[in-house]
Amino acid sequence: MTHFLLNSLLMQRRAFLRATSAAAAAAGAPSFLLSGCGTNLPKADLVVDPNIPWWRQHNFGPVFDELDETDLKVRGAIPPELNGVYVRNGSNPQASDNTHWFLGDGMVHGVRLGGGEAKWYRNRYVRTTFHEDGIGFGVPQGPNTYANVSLVYHADRLLASGEVGFPYELNPSDLSTVGVRDFAGELNNYFTAHPAIDPATGFMHFFGYGFGPPFLTYCVADDQGTLLSCEAVAARGATMMHSFAITDRDAIFWELPVVFDLSVLSETGWMFRWDADFGARIGVMPLGGPASEIRWVEIEPCYVFHHLNAFRVGDDIVVDVCRYDEMMNGERFGAIDPQLRRWTIGTAGEELTFSESTLSERNIEFPYSDRRNFGRATRYGWFTSLRDHPETLDPAGVVRYDSQTGMIDEWEPSPYRQSGEPLFVPAGDGEGDGWLLTFVYDRSADATDLVILDATAVGGGPVAEVRMPRRVPHGFHGTWVPDQA
Ligand SMILES: [Fe+2]
């Protein structure tokens, strides 16, 4: 995209913000009213039935029909520069008796935006072999998987991916399933839910972890989606390795003590367990390989699903992570109380060094950075804030963390509302200039809105909210598929 075009988009965005602020002022309506933000509402008690797993209750429960709706009600003003499709993936079990939140058919929910309008909402199951064969519980392998965790748009392909197994390609125009994406038969191991696209090359770096040797593989696809390389990485064993990081020259893995163990399945209904004795370590290797050059450094046992970003500061690598003290220790989940920590890995010496500091003690998850700078230094991060609840995951609003000042800017909706991952869509050329898109569920109305926030002014509340034709269950990760220029 040319500099001129970026400047043009920035000007459009500023003009839009001025116009919508003026309109709100003229109507005597402060912008927070758009959010339905009832600050006068009493603190809601989220009652959880202890006899039913929390991921089958409230808005974690599945929906079963596939809808197409074009008559969508909008509050506020949708930024006209948002031309594309917002799509989000999640676990939506057909049988609704899944033994874990992570075990359920992939279902995507999408909203088409264009010219300041919400054109349609659709939801579709991902037509995996598990779904087509009606398999409620299975150990994923190859095309036999759930494809229920994330979406990635790369090389003009929209891919739905699960934790393990192959991704499935979807058609962004109607969210139908094109088929399994096995990279022309070249993919012979697994595919993570969190591939990393290097903004400098457009290459997609990804890993896969499996339940038997090789436990970990690292692959690179070029900007056309052609698989360039796949190689085994020496791992200690099968662990739940949910994501990894890249910098402009490194690939970084964290091998943490949530280990694969089928022997606990009958007891816990789940196939991983905490094992502090397994140890924990971080591996650093050159971006693109070879994997033989990986170096490891031991760290204290902990667990990390997601990182915000990673980048080089001279010989040091910085990785900002949502860190748990432990995970799946004797139960299927454990306390959901992640804190934002900064890992600093020194690479100058023969041996790696490691240190850790706390950036924020707030419980925040689903990190998102301006991915135009993925792997490079970034200042801002957006997260979902979590309410303190001992029995369930209770997401609240959206926060922006400023790593330069340590300040948090926060949109706290009513206590009945629960936000998902804040997906950043760039608009303008400055880091963090853009919009945040997320589904927000309202328990008091049993309804879901697609909420759009100004990424530079999160605390100002939504600029627009699009009411979905019915609730959208809580899910995991989404992406933005822009219209072709
Ligand atoms: Fe994830």
Brief descriptors of the model:
mainly beta; six-stranded antiparallel β-sheet; 3 helices; 485 residues
TL;DR of this structure?
The chain has 485 residues and is mainly β. It is built from 3 helices and 33 strands. The protein starts with a helix and ends with a strand.
What report would you give on this structure?
With 485 residues, this protein is mainly β. A hairpin with a 3-residue loop joins β14 and β15. Strands 2, 28, 29, 30, 31 and 32 form a six-stranded antiparallel beta sheet that branches. A five-stranded antiparallel beta sheet has the order 1-5-4-3-33, with no helix packed on it. Strands 6-7-8-9 form a four-stranded antiparallel beta sheet, with no helix packed on it. It starts with a helix and ends with a strand. The chain contains three helices and 33 strands. The protein binds fe (ii) ion. Fe (ii) ion binds next to β20.
**Rounded mean pLDDT score:** 91
Bound molecules: fe (ii) ion
CATH-derived architecture: 6 Propeller
Which ranges are low-confidence, i.e. pLDDT below 50, for 5 or more consecutive residues? 1-11, 21-43
Shape type: globular
